[in-house]
């Protein structure tokens, strides 16, 4: 069975900690992290699982109760180049982001190097929660917010808009940190803070953003999967961006801006 193209009715097969497990359709649909789990259908998700679920007792308990299944015959998923023009421009050896169907030896080397870096970061305490730091940052952004309101009240509209923009930018990054469960060890507190800073304070959906951002971290720089590198027509990060724009305005931007984006 080619699990990279298996239907949803067959369940979602993935490998974690050396064990192949099959997740039911119901579990996949109710997965708290959203549809990002689909990106590892038929793949080894060991490191991404630990990266996403560190500190979550519920996730590790759920992993323990999953039954092990036989190893499938096909275990690699590859993303091929979509455009024939890309094939003329891109060399797979130079742009490994195009195709991650790499030899097991090279993959293992990458994994071990990343694990070494991860352990070093942890040992130096760089990822330890710092609640007081985030209390100070939240106080600062709401002080800026009040200052922006005061400027607006005094009819300094331009300055108020600039300060308000800075405030929202800072709130956005604070919400980002809360969604990564960085401020405290208590995930419920982090979830509440992300809702407060995102939904309540800025009016955007935290859950929508988490689904999008989880996908970015799970498929970082994978073309056609990582939405964070799909910035055309304002920026072109891969050659295919130059050819997929259809509207007159998009093509105009490509002609006027893209040739100078390196500046």
Tell me the number of structural domains.
Answer: 3
Distance between the termini: 49 Å
Radius of gyration: 22 Å
Q: Could you give a short account of the major beta sheet?
A: 2 strands, antiparallel
| Integer average pLDDT | 80
Q: Strand order of the main beta sheet, please?
A: 1-2
Summarize the amount of helix as a percent range. Answer: 40-55%
Large-scale geometry: globular
Poorly predicted runs: 1-9, 75-99
Record the SSE blueprint.
Layout: E1 12-16, E2 19-23, H1 25-29, H2 46-53, H3 57-65, H4 84-89, H5 104-123, H6 131-153, H7 157-179, H8 187-202, H9 206-218, H10 248-256
Antiparallel strand pairs: 1-2
Helix pairs in contact: 6-7, 7-8
Descriptive overview:
Residues 1-73 form the Cytochrome b5 heme-binding domain. Pfam families: Cyt-b5 (PF00173), FA_desaturase (PF00487). The chain has 263 residues and is mainly alpha-helical. It has three domains: 12-87, no CATH class; 131-219, no CATH class; 231-262, no CATH class. It is built from ten helices and two strands; from the N terminus they run ββαααααααααα. The protein has a two-stranded antiparallel sheet with strand order 1-2. A hairpin with a 2-residue loop joins strand 1 (12-16) and strand 2 (19-23). Helix 6 (131-153) runs antiparallel to helix 7 (157-179) and helix 7 packs antiparallel against helix 8. The longest helix has 23 residues, at 131-153.
Compose a concise summary of this entry.
By secondary structure, the chain is mainly α.
Keywords summarizing the entry:
two-stranded antiparallel ribbon; single chain; 50% helix; 10 helices; 263 residues; mainly alpha
């Amino acid at each position: 069975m080619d699990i990279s193209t298996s239907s949803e009715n067959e369940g979602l097969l993935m490998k974690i900690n050396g064990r192949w497990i099959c997740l039911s359709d119901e579990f996949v649909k109710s997965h708290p992290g959203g549809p990002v789990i689909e990106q590892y259908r038929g793949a080894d998700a060991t490191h991404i699982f630990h990266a996403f679920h560190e500190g979550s007792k519920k996730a590790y308990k759920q992993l323990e109760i999953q039954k092990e299944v036989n190893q499938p015959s096909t275990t690699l998923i590859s993303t091929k180049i979509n455009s024939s023009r890309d094939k003329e421009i891109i060399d797979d050896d130079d742009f490994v982001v195009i195709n991650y169907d790499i030899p097991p030896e090279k993959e293992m080397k990458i994994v071990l190097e990343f694990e070494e870096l991860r352990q070093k970061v942890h040992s130096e305490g760089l990822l330890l929660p710092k609640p007081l730091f985030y209390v100070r940052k939240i106080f600062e952004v709401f002080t800026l917010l009040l200052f922006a309101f005061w400027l607006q009240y005094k009819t300094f509209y331009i300055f108020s808009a600039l300060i308000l923009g800075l405030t929202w930018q800072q709130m956005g990054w604070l919400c980002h940190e809360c969604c990564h469960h960085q401020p405290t060890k208590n995930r419920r507190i982090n979830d509440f803070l992300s809702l407060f800073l995102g939904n309540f304070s800025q009016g955007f959906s935290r859950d929508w953003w988490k689904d999008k951002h989880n996908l970015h971290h799970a498929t970082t720089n994978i073309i056609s999967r990582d939405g964070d590198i799909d910035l055309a027509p304002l920026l072109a990060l891969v050659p295919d961006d130059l050819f997929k724009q259809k509207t007159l305005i998009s093509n105009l931007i490509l002609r006027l801006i893209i040739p100078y984006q390196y500046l």
